[in-house]
Amino acid sequence: MIGRRAIDWIWHVRGSLDIGPTQSAEDAFNRLSPLFRQAGTSHECSDNTLIFRKKNQAAQDRMAVFDGGILQIDTGMSGPVLHYDLNSRALLFCFLAPLLFLAIAQLTILTGKFDTTPAAQAIKQPAPKKPGVPMNPIDKALGAPAPDTSGKDAAQDKKPSPTPGYVFAGIFAALYVIGRWLEARLVRALFRAYLLVS
Amino acid sequence: MDGIRVGNRLIGTQAPVTVGWENIPRVEGGPFKQFVFTWFQPVALFALLAFWYYAPNSIAKASTAIGIGIGFKVLLLGLEWVNPRHESWRLTWKELATDLFYVGLTYTLIRLAENYIGSGVMAKALQHHFHWEKLAWFIGLPILVQAFLISFIFDFGQYWMHRGMHNWYPLWLPHSVHHYITQLNVNKGAVGNPVELFLIGLGIGGFFDFIPRAALIAGTFGLAIGTYQHINVRFNSPRWWRFLFNTTEHHSLHHSQDYEATRSNYAGSYIFIDRMFGTCIDGEAELLGMEGGRRMSIREQMTYPFTEGWKTIRQRMGRPIAVPAE
Which residues in chain A are contacts of B287 at CB distance < 8 A? Predict the structure, then answer.
């Protein structure tokens, strides 16, 4: 059986950061505390560990992508090190979203087979040539192209197609890869900024 | 908060808003930046209109319109990056992913539903039942007039649907979800409960017989005007533009945390419809949303109209609702 740890990298962001030899765990958490004093965020701190949870966090919250996590400070070879393990439902959702859109594409194909709407019927039958459409003299004078009389009905463009489902599956796959990489970098830079610069 | 008197109404008693064009900040920066962000909107509108008016029939089709729509929105996302209206509305990865999820639903599931129960199908059913012919005289009008009328009639219907949503509880329930957004970005117009997204898309265009090119130009009016409702870009929109068309300033006021301000600026593209019916307020707001700016998760957005509706029914039926102990 695959251990949870083998797959939870999908929605977990883990990392560690040297926080400088002179900083205690209490100092470090004090410096990070503005990040956890946000609307919808609760946190508890004990010794060298900080646990936080977020619910309905504001879009403007700089850690909005995460719903909870654990921060721990241990003493490493070169001094104190912050270890963090953050979880994100948004990342998990984005990872699964391609499956949803692929399923929608399959549903579109399936419903198309049983489609009896006029738009579908229009596509199945050969398009009759349209009679000449009157063109307003103003449009003639301004040089607009004459209306299309080839008989290709606009309904053809409106027929539900599985293509958008496939396109959005691709978009979300790409978004996941970007988000998983970007959010890990951003949160690391955020912690570094609070711990080392301020 | 004292609020600002606009006609008979007091705006901004619950949350900060800015009322009056003279109080709204201008684009900051050099002359080139000022020029671009003053003329971008009208130039884009007229360029797109000219393209669709003169494009050969082989190009003037729906697939081209979809491509242009995507390209235009990517360009607007770039403008959000370059010249944001508010730093607090900056697009994050999470916001982009959330918005694109709703855009995806609109292009897939909602389009699928519209194929069976949308306004086009309803119009055809009514015409068939009452033996009406399509309004054939419409097709003889100049293309731009046809396009404007399609767009205006749709927007006029949308104005009353939207106003109805703010005044009739059963319609408010699905629409309320859209008012939980706390910032405006290019794709935020798509965020909402699918029931609302379906309702707001209903129109009566199916009753008219029109040249396909006119429908594409009508879509361009929506793209090059209506899209600016939800956008985090500061423009110096020309005076005539903001008199005629809905802007992000108008729509931010509609989304503000001030209840009275939300009851204004209902039109999608043509703000003059609001002016006609006395619901227009010229101004803007930065603090948006409901319940003090609580952001709603996608899961809650999907279920909220139904759970809230159920709660209300139970209350009306006189059954007490279990409230967790403090």
Answer: none
Give burial (CB, 10 Å; 0-12/13-18/19+) of B188: buried
Block mean pLDDT (10 aa), chain B, length 326: 87 94 92 95 97 94 92 96 94 96 92 75 66 68 93 92 94 95 94 86 67 91 95 95 96 96 96 96 95 90 94 84 58
Is A171 inside any structural domain?
A: no
pLDDT at B272: 97
Residue whose entry in the numeric block shows the structure tokens 């009514």: B126
With CA atoms as reference, the chain A residue closest to B65 would be A157
Whole-number percent of chain A with pLDDT over 70 = 85
Task: Tell me if A57 is assigned to some domain.
Answer: yes
**pLDDT tens sequence across A79-124:** 889 999 999 999 999 999 999 999 999 999 998 888 766 655 655 5
Distance from the first to the final alpha carbon of chain A: 46
- Supply the ipTM of this predicted assembly: 0.87
Does residue A156 sit within a domain? no
φ, ψ of residue A74 in degrees (nearest 5)? -120, 165
Give residue A193's domain range. Answer: 4-91+178-197
pTM of the model: 0.87
pLDDT at A24 over 70: yes
Look up the CATH number of the domain holding residue A41. Answer: 3.30.530
Which residues have CB under 8 Å from A52's CB, separation 6+? A36, A41, A42, A43, A44, A68, A69, A71
Name the domain count of chain A. Answer: 1
For residue A46, how many C-alpha atoms fall within 13 Å in the half-sphere facing its CB? Answer: 2
A139 touches chain B (CB under 8 A): yes
**Within an 8 Å CB–CB cutoff, is residue B125 touching chain A?**
no
Provide the greatest CA pair distance for chain A: 86
| Residue A54 maps to a domain | yes
Distance of CA B209 to the CA centre of its chain: 26
| Structural domain boundaries in chain B | 29-311
Cβ-defined contact of A178 to B98 (cutoff 8 Å): no
* E strands, chain B, in order: 4-6, 9-11, 18-19, 283-284
